[in-house]
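If your schedule permits, I should be very grateful for your opinion on a structural question. Thank you for your consideration; the sequence and its tokens are set out here:

===
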Amino acid sequence: MTGANGAGKTNLLEALHLALQGFSPRTRADARLVRHGAERARIRVAGLRGTAALEVEVTLGLREPRRLVLNGAPLRSAEELRGEVAALAFTPDRLVVVKGGPAARRAYFDRASTRLYPARAALATDYAAAVAQRNAALRRAASGTAEIDAVSPWSDHVAELGAALAATRQDTLALLAEPASMRAAELGLHGLRLRYEPSLPTPDALAARLEHDLERGATGLGPHLDDVEILAGDRDLRAYGSQGEQRLAVLSLLLAEAEAVRERRGVAPLLLLDDALSELDVDRRRLLSERLGATGQTIVTATGSEALPLAPAQLVEVVSGTARTVR
């Protein structure tokens, strides 16, 4: 997909990602996704998942909850949609996965987990809810409006769900680590590896720090505070990686996840790459394009067709928000 800067290429990719994953890679505020002056927005995407017909509709409103519909059936959550449909996106903002704080990496790998292990899609949300309930119980106990014994059931719940969430993250990283390292090496980033050392909130560990948690009114141990380190050899790419290395790391993770999704689900995910080629040299653009061509359907944006190192199967031009097929 080609077009001048500001033509609307990114908006189109964003709409596809929102329809297929239930959230925008740019913002979590629905009001920012609705055209100025309008009350609501609707996105409808139709295609094939393998050989089966697929239709997704997402409705956003300024004064109404988001609605997701898959093949005519309403969905309860975005996690449920991601358990059914897989789409992976690269945007320049995605560099936050490497260069940002731990929360960005936790969110990234937890979303990857829902695509790789759909049966565990609600785990991260359920764990976050349990931590919130324990925190509320801690604050009530600290203020004297509830007995301290009221914290214990939530501690057990946090321990159980925390262990399951940490195990799921470890399973996800085990699937992604080797292919990500291989794809990174192909692109010239050698020694890429992932390191995760979970802090398990066992009942005994939570009991041992109860006094401290009561003082803070918050649970200070568990997967909600963990980090996944993205390294090249012994270098933490967050602190010691160049922007080019950080970009290659994110692209390698995307390619690795695409391979893992295809292997586990039998259907390749749709890949959405916005401005992924602009900062790569000619050889790396060619290598990445060849790898993408072997992965599945991919939509790549560029300002002009000359930036595409390989001839696309279809070329779409975007002019002033309108897309048209060139060839």
Remarks:
- The chain is about 45% helix and 20% strand.
- The first helix runs from residue 9 to 21.
- The CA atoms of residues 156 and 203 lie 6 Å apart.
